[in-house]
Design a protein that fits this description.
Layout lengths: L1 E5 L5 E4 L23 E3 L5 H55 L5 H42 L2 H16 L10 E5 L1 H8 L3 H4 L10 H13 L3 E5 L11 H9 L5 H11 L6 E2 L6 E2 L1 H11 L3 E7 L3 E9 L4
Helix pairs in contact: 1-2, 1-6, 3-6, 6-9, 8-9
This protein binds zinc ion (ZN).
The site of zinc ion has 8 residues, from loops.
Length: 318
């Protein structure tokens, strides 16, 4: 994935072209102004563009989430009512059985009771399907809304996140150093002391755009980004085959990066593949932002993590 700017309207768009495929741009139309093939590579800061898109998406979600939620609730009410009816019919059916056993009732009456149960059961199957369909619309909206955070707070905090990373203090060996990685693992690292805490994204609200703002703050200061790996936890580690790809190509093509994450990094620090979701992790997003800014991977031995597992993304020279 790589970002281009429309030469006519100035809007930013992503295309999934590798470096070799940029000739395809000639045929691409701007979805805002319909101009074809007028694209310039855009490798400058992108947090504001992402935050703006998040605002627009949050607005659309807010408009749809209310009706979707009430649909789900209606379906749940319907199911509850049917379950009540079913209990009642089953009670009647059992009563019929007792009466038949006592010779007080003909078997045809129990057939009627059984049919009534079958009818309600059919209705419940249909209502369950309806609930599932309604949830299929509602739950993703709810999740997307949660992912976008409280917009007012996110927009207020994004500049703070940018500044915090931009003003990171030098380490003992003179590096402006920031940490990225699995959020739980990295933040547990940050609890060790305030210097470490200041090297990671530490804000009470979060969205991808805010995260990108923090990374770009570090980029503007030419900070280095160390990927914290935790060998015991697949979700906090990167598969060896992927690391090998980075070793072979330290300036990995940002356009190809997500493809690699998906192909070889599922269930790792790079690709979230759980609960029916399949998307780049926030760490992958951070690395992508660094790659598109010209950062490259460096590898060294780590006392803590073993040979070749000290991975630091460093800015382009100059
Ligand atoms: Zn345009």
């Amino acid at each position: 994935m790589i970002t281009y700017k429309c030469g006519r309207c100035g809007r930013i768009t992503e295309f999934y072209f590798s470096r070799e495929q940029t000739y395809k741009l000639k045929q691409c139309q701007c979805s805002y102004c319909n101009t074809v093939g007028n694209w310039q590579l855009y490798d400058r800061e992108i947090a504001d563009v992402i935050l703006e898109r998040e605002d627009a998406r949050a607005k659309r979600i807010a408009a749809n989430i209310g009706p979707a939620e009430s649909d789900v609730n209606k379906c749940k009410e319907e199911l509850k009512a049917l379950a009540g009816q079913l209990r009642q019919r089953e009670w009647q059916y059992n009563k019929c059985q007792t009466s038949i056993a006592k010779g007080q009732m003909s078997t045809s009456e129990i057939d009627t009771a059984r049919k009534a149960i079958e009818e309600i059961t059919d209705k419940m199957v249909a209502a369950t399907q309806k609930l599932k369909d309604a949830e299929l619309i509602y739950l993703p909206l709810k999740e997307q809304a949660a992912d976008l955070g409280n917009r007012q707070a996110v927009n207020a905090k994004a500049p703070d996140a940018f500044e915090a990373a931009k003003n990171v203090k030098r380490s003992k060996n003179g590096h402006l150093k920031l940490y990225i990685g699995n959020r739980n693992y990295v933040s547990s690292h940050g609890t060790q002391n305030s210097t470490k805490k200041a090297r990671l994204l530490d804000v009470p609200v979060w969205s991808p755009g805010l995260n990108v703002a923090w990374v770009e703050g570090g980029i503007s200061a030419k900070a280095v980004f160390k990927i914290k790996l935790n060998a015991g936890d697949p979700y906090a580690d990167i598969p060896e085959s992927v690391l090998q790809a980075f070793r072979e190509t330290p300036t990995y093509d940002a356009a190809e990066f997500f493809r690699l994450c998906k192909a070889q990094g599922k269930g790792s620090l790079l690709w979230y593949d759980k609960d029916g979701k399949s998307r780049p992790t926030w760490t992958a997003l951070e690395i992508w932002v660094l790659l598109r800014a010209g950062y490259r991977f460096t590898f060294a031995d780590s006392k803590h993590d073993g040979a070749g597992r000290k991975i630091v993304l460093v800015p382009p020279p100059g």
